[in-house]
Amino acid sequence: MSVSRDQKPEPHSNVAADTADNDSTSPQCAESPLASTNAQMSSEPVWISPGSAAFRRISVALFLAGYATFSLIYCVQPLLPELANHFGVGPAESSLALSLTTGFLAFAILLAGAVSEAAGRKQLMLVSMCVASILNLIAPFLSDWHAFLVLRALEGLILGGVPAVAMAYLAEEIDPKGLGMAMGIYISGTAIGGLSGRVVIGFLTDMFGWHTALGAMGAFGLLAALGFAVLLPASRNFVRRPGFQVRYHLRAWGGHLKHAGLPYVFLIGAFAMGCFVTVFNYVGFRLSDEPYSLSQSQIGLIFVVYLCGSVMSSIAGALSDRLGRGPVLVVGVLLAGLGVVLTMLDSLGGIIGGIVVLTSGFFVAHSIASGWVGRLAETSKGHASSLYLLAYYLGSSIMGSVGGWFWDHGGWNAVAGFAVALLFCALLCGIHLWRLAAKASGDRGQGAGGNAVKGELVDAT
């Protein structure tokens, strides 16, 4: 195994700074219910500290990556009526322009972590952003509906190289004391990207038409990729693994799935995203009907609440570094549930207020869960991140479609009930993780398995 000249081996204990006097290779490591999926520690990691110039560069670069990825994914959502009219397809078929992208994205993310082990973190993210942006520039010139869908599917496949790898990069390079903040800033970039992809393109469409608007989003993506390439430092704690070693990747995925805590984090991502997408998929149908009769541009402005998500994800990350991940995660899920309940009110203000609360709670939960993956999976972080995002986007695709059945058979109250049920499942997973972390912290206080209980478990209580 070779290490590039400016790299150091990937750390096998990203909490070495928190427990420098503990031996991570101790046999007691297996005693903790949330012990990380670690191997023998090869060297001390070279962390990037919060507040440093490198930390700020990474934060801005990963913000741009999140922006480009999610603006390109979701820019077609407000264009679905335009696409239906232009290509002569129905509303359900027009939704494939988005669902195919997110569906292929889910499976691409699973492989992206493995590919990045050989290709490198920064290189894979940069290529993904550039190629996807170029595809978005090509899309407006296609006159065949099926060709357009193939291009959108390819875009999702290629964009899978960003989310999982970005999470792995942050977990490898950022000091654990600032990981929550850094992850929150990245998630805020995804929120701004989702906002831009849904709102900005609507105004551009009104002014210039959907063809120009869609191409403009591709151009914005290329500009973000340029900034990303200039700002992001090369990895320092990453070990390149040449070739595609099937056994290694299967062993890495299997190890994460056998972990005491990681599968619950994956489920939280699936349930939370399933709820979020279900609400946003069908609230437009409700608000376009009587007695609200909102126009498409007015409905599109509701997505401005993504700004709340951007702010809340950064706040949640900072709070988790101080208070622990468990309590902040649970509060986020409860907040999202309150938001869903508020959308059942008849007043327009109550519905919009509920969407604001839901969005805030969702981004709190997503930000915390994303950061927790990086803390629990000390090795093969790209694989752990890819599993989390696979669950996250499968939850979006599957639950979002299932929500349509509730809309058809019971209206909005049925949709809201389904969304609350999903959040209840996420809440159960969060409480279980919190209890495991509390148990691990208690064991440390009693002197049992002290070497196994790393800083992330203490933080999580």
Automatic annotation (TrEMBL):
Stretches with biased composition (Basic and acidic residues): 1-11
| Origin superkingdom | Bacteria
Main localization category: membrane
Q: Does the keyword Disulfide bond apply?
A: no
Location of the Major facilitator superfamily (MFS) profile domain: 54-441
Annotated membrane topology is:
Multi-pass membrane protein
Q: Which residues cross the membrane?
A: 60-80, 92-112, 124-143, 149-171, 183-204, 210-232, 261-285, 297-319, 326-345, 351-374, 386-407, 413-434
Give the protein's recorded name.
Answer: MFS transporter
According to its UniProt entry, this protein's organism is Thalassospira povalilytica
